[in-house]
Amino acid sequence: MPADPANGHQAELPYIDFAYNHRESAATAKELVCRIQPKWRAHPEQIQIIQFKEGITNTARPILKPGHDEIDGESILMRSYGNNTDILIDRDREARSHAVPSPNIWTVMLKWVHALPQSDAKQRARRKFLEDELERSFRDLDNYSGPGKRGFVFGHGDLLCANVIKTTSGQEAVALIDYEYAVSCSAAFDIANHFAEWGGYDCDYNMLPTRSTRRMFLQEYLASYNQHADERVPDSTLSFLEAEVDRYRGIPGLYWGIWALIQATISTIDFNYAEYAEIRLDEYSAWRKAESGGGQSLEALPLRESRWAED
Predict the structure, then answer these.
(1) Shared domain check, 215 and 80
(2) Cβ contacts of residue 235 below 8 Å, gap of 6+?
(3) How many CA atoms lie within 13 A of 189 on its CB side?
């Protein structure tokens, strides 16, 4: 699968033509962060700079968003190095390391497919089939341009109910845990994957959210995104994202189906991974069939697809 730099597969390190002045460190720091976050320029007097004192060769300064008193997810950490430290630190190498292409949902699945056993003809045929289906899905879906930089977001990748923790602070908020499957992906994949998890490990498709429930979820998702993002997404994004989540609804079955095939060969846990793999891969097949079926009635669709189509 080719990597397309225009669609979030390769990081591009921004270049800011600006020199830091140690003699006017506060003013220089504020100007630098305003170039990174232009909207902060509206209230430069409210930008707070905190200086850490532990370093002996460099200075680290958390810079807080205007109007904020504590370090949060929108704070910027600026590190200024000592005089002539470029003799010791290779800046070009450091810049290259920040521009290394990062894994994404497609490359992760491809790695998993390549890890499948090939001991006999049946295993080799299945691996070839899954490799072809992954290539097909990549071609069909990797033109996404929804929320997130270049259409990609930091996806959790495993948003089952046990990884969503309700807070006790009295606020309407949740905390997410267990990020071992976190990956760069389209928002549509991560959301479709979360909706798929409503069925639980036993894949009870009657528990999947209907269209109206999904739409309410997406409204809250975009409201939260607008609250934290640098730029607001237009109102039309709701309908667009809803359609994209629909398009991605079969990919979690492919993703976890491949995962379960690997687990079936390596895991010592008392769980029937082989059976689970077939169930999840059947979800992918049902989605493919529904997409090419030419408008089947709800009664004619598999249960998962008919539940998904309900209002």
Answers:
(1) no
(2) none
(3) 31
- Tell me the sheet residues that pair with 49: 63
Query: Is position 264 within any domain?
Result: yes
Digit-coded pLDDT (tens) for 135-159? 999 999 987 666 766 678 889 999 9
Give residue for tokens 């990062």. 102
pTM over 0.90: no
46 and 173 together in one domain: no
69/42 same-domain check = yes
Domain containing residue 68: 22-98
Q: Please check whether residues 70 and 211 belong to one and the same domain.
A: no
180 against 296, higher pLDDT: 180
Query: Token digits for 20?
Result: 């830091």
What is the pLDDT, as a whole number, of residue 296? 63
| pLDDT at position 113 | 98
